Amino acid sequence: MIPRVAFMPDCFHEVNGVALTSRQLDAWAQRQRYPFLSIHYGPRLHAETHGDYRRVELDRTWAKVAVDCDLWFDAALFRHRSLLRDELRRFRPDVVHITGPGDAGILGAWLAHDLRIPLVISWHTNVHEFAARRLRNLHVSEPIASFAERKILDAVCRFYKLGKVLLAPSPELLQMLQQRTGRPVYRMTRGCDTTLFRPRTHAPKSNILLGFTGRLTAEKNLRSLASLQRKLDEGYPGLCRFLIVGEGGERPWLEANLRNAVFTGVLKGEALAEAYSAMDIFVFPSETDTYGNVVVEAMASGVPAVVSNKGGPRFLVKHGETGFVADSPDAFTEHVALLARNLPLRRSMGQAARQFAEAQSWDSVFQRVYQAYAEAVTGCPQLSAALPAVI
User: Fold this and answer.
1) Are 277 and 339 part of one and the same domain?
2) Cβ neighbours around 26 below 10 Å, total
3) Is the separation of the CB atoms in 120 and 96 below 8 Å?
4) Are residues 17 and 154 in the same domain?
5) Distance (Å, rounded) from C-alpha 332 to C-alpha 136?
């Protein structure tokens, strides 16, 4: 039997990996005609029903606090609990799925406990590393930043112990959550729209275009791009320029310190796909990302990627075949310089990157998620494997 799922993500309409994955799961459940209750914040209080699918959008109050340029936490989140308790009682979910300790996640965890519904929690964001990175950017001392990182991780892991089954995007996070919580953990990766994101033909360029896509925030380690540009210019003056796609608090610093760069702001759909395909090399210096949707989108566009050896993206790039995984800032520069000066290598890696991306299916991702739901309901991994094939 297909589990009845109440899904309460902390992000849905925003521009980030959590929101993208949430929208994809919502749309996939609708296509499969699975019983699905989607509850998330939106521009206004609103509800709609289509067969076994129901969507409830909540509005945030004056008590909302900005976490990032388009991310909020509503301190008055419990004002919706009576409304949502009634929604859950009518829908009768077998499982509640939340995406972390945000406002919707806390409310979902409370309701699941109150109504005795099994809870599934997916890990999407290394909140502890994000906080530490921002403290360091504010020149807080290293002992204090490291202490804050450890304590935040302890608190987040206590929250994840509330889940009966957990989901995580990378092998290192699976291992960490299993050790820290004792809960069963399924791997939840990400898919990619390889029809939208694909190689395209562009006019020849006079120099190499290094691209980055994502939120322009401290935890992305974007200030290292200025150092990368400086080192490249020392050995190969004028060889490279930057295309920066995204928005966030680091943009003013980057505009002031990154020369020969174009900043597009947030792009979506065809405009985003065109930007990816115009890049020659995708540079992603983040050390805190849990997965890296944008890395796969760039690879789907036939662009080799250079990433850090810390965080989830290193599990996406096959070193020396689809790009490079750098074990130091100097190695990052060396890998970029090698690709920039070697057109045949860029082409061969771009082709291999495209082949990797074509194998990343949202269908297979969400089939595994539904197996996790089934285990949360039955407590039996063997029964969860008996779910019907994707329609």
Assistant:
1) yes
2) 17
3) yes
4) yes
5) 21
Same domain assignment for residues 48 and 91? yes
Side chain identity, residue 307? V
What is the tens place of the pLDDT at every residue in 182-240? Answer: 999 999 999 999 999 999 988 878 889 999 999 999 889 999 999 999 999 999 998 99
Length of the chain: 391
**Among 321, 295, 320, 293, which residue's Cα sits nearest to residue 307?**
295
Q: For residue range 124-162, what is the model confidence (pLDDT) as tens digits?
A: 988 888 888 888 888 889 999 999 999 999 999 999 999
Examine the domain organization and report whether 162 and 213 are in the same domain. no
Q: Which domain holds residue 47?
A: 5-191+361-384
Beta carbons within 10 angstroms of residue 114's beta carbon: 11
SS3 of residue 296 by DSSP: helix
Q: Which one, of 25, 1, 3, 2, lies nearest residue 12 by Cα? A: 25
Q: What pLDDT, in 10s, does the model give residues 291-347?
A: 999 999 999 999 999 999 999 999 999 999 999 999 999 999 999 999 999 999 999
Q: How many Å apart are CA 73 and CA 67, to the nearest integer?
A: 7
* Cα distances (angstroms) measured from residue 285 to each of 239, 245, 302, 311, 351: 19, 14, 19, 10, 22
What is the rounded distance in angstroms from the CA atom of residue 302 to the CA atom of residue 355? 9
Q: Which residues contact 96 (CB under 8 A, 6 or more apart)?
A: 5, 6, 7, 8, 88, 108, 109, 111, 112, 117, 118, 119, 120
> How far is 164 from 113, CA to CA, in rounded Å?
11
Q: How far apart are CA 100 and CA 8, in angstroms?
A: 10
pTM: 0.87
**Kind and range of the H or E run holding 288:** none
Q: Hey, what are 293's tokens?
A: 């949707």
Within a domain: 196: no
DSSP string, 167-215: EESSHHHHHHHHHHH---EEE------TTTS--------SSEEEEEES-
Give the burial class of 380: count Cβ atoms within 10 A of its Cβ; 0-12 exposed, 13-18 middle, 19 or more buried: exposed
* CA–CA dist 254, 382 (Å, integer): 51
CA distance 291 to 365: 13
